[in-house]
Amino acid sequence: MHAERLREKEERPRAPPGPNQEDESEQDYNKYRQIWDMKWSKQYGSFEDTTSIPAMCFTDNPMPRFTVHQTTMQIFSVKVTEITGGLQWPLDVFGMIAMRDDLDHNRNIIFNRSRDNCQTLTQQGQHLVLTGPARAVVHEGHPSVYFEAILKVKGATCSEDRDLSLLISRCNTRQSASKSLVGTRCYRSKLSTLELAYGIIVACAEATIRVELVEGSWPEGFHGQLTACTASVPHMKVLLLDSGEKEAVVGDGGKMELSRRVVSVERSGQLVVCAVLSRGGEKVVEAETSLAPLEAGRSHDMLDVGSCKLRVTVAWSPILKGYPLRGFSLPSSEAVVS
After folding, report:
1. pTM of the model
2. InterPro entries, alphabetically (predicted)?
3. Which of 67, 84, 147, 291 could make a disulfide contact with 318, Cβ separation 3.0–4.6 Å?
4. pLDDT in tens, 205-264
């Protein structure tokens, strides 16, 4: 199965921002919030609530009455571009980015940083380090998927912080019944443009990835990356871990702390997990494994990167048809473990 490439721009004109653009961004955002409150608050709670539907809902019990292999939106990256208003690189950025879908219309967080934990963006490094989604983003039928961003640039004091982005915009795209698509969209608001790289993955299973160091040690002085992709879109990877030049963080039992762990894979496709070690910009070791999706349950394989061996565990789950559904209750957080 081969993916098509689709490049889309936001619906708004790409003219230079005018003096009232900040007010327009706030007006658009507040208007959407009012509409959301009227339509969804009684059923789904507060506008600020995050999704209560976890990943791995059906790993141990597929419950075919309530589940299906749906089309989903895979989030590959978010990049800050075209800064205005006198801003200059580097920027210390904090705030929140989320996706919203038809399952519960709540925030499915993909980026979240406090003012005390900013990410520094440079002209050469404009991509935000994503930490989500918490579950697959559903893009089935005639979906209403929204991209929401509230980002600020940290100033010397709180009063000197500046609004970098404030938006919530529908990001549905055309989809094929048989082929996955990849593309980009750009969203302008406040003092920047955000570039979203995404995929529309058809008839997919949700994969939740766990990586454990089971032998040896992570080499010091090496830049390590772990990525995942669906084999139909091998050039578009989800970054699970980027250690920089530091040793990767390994917790109890050898579990590695991944920044992201949920990806979507075509039910008839392959999940590819790759580990790369490099030094001085030169690739030293690369290892990868491919796993075929299961209806439910877990699959395992090993990655040998020379100085250490990593065990990859993937928890497979079909996707909830809708929420709420008569006769279905969400599992407790204690029941959903990786």
Report:
1. 0.92
2. DUF6598
3. 67
4. 999 999 999 999 888 888 899 999 999 999 999 999 998 766 677 888 899 999 999 999
- Rounded to whole angstroms, the Cα distance separating 210 from 271 reads 13
* Mean pLDDT on 257-272: 97
Give Dmax (Cα) for the chain: 58
Residue with token string 């520094």: 120
**Look-up of token digits 């790289």:** 197
Residue 3 in this model has a pLDDT that exceeds 60: no
How far is residue 292 from each of residues 236, 262, 289, 323, measured CA to CA in Å? Answer: 18, 16, 10, 28
End-to-end CA distance of the chain: 29
Among 90, 96, 89, 74, residue whose Cα is nearest residue 165: 96
- What is the H or E stretch that residue 28 is in? helix 21-44
Q: What is the mean pLDDT of residues 96-118?
A: 98
pLDDT at 126: 98
Beta bridge partners of 196: 78, 185
3-class secondary-structure state, position 169: strand
Structural domains in the chain, CATH included, are 4-10+19-49+71-201 (2.60.40), 204-320 (2.60.40.150)
What is the b/e burial string over 303-325, where b = at least 16 CB atoms within 10 angstroms of the residue's CB? bebeebebbbbbbbbbbbbebee
Residues for the chain: how many in total? 338
Q: Which of 255, 259, 243, 247 is nearest to 217 (CA)?
A: 247
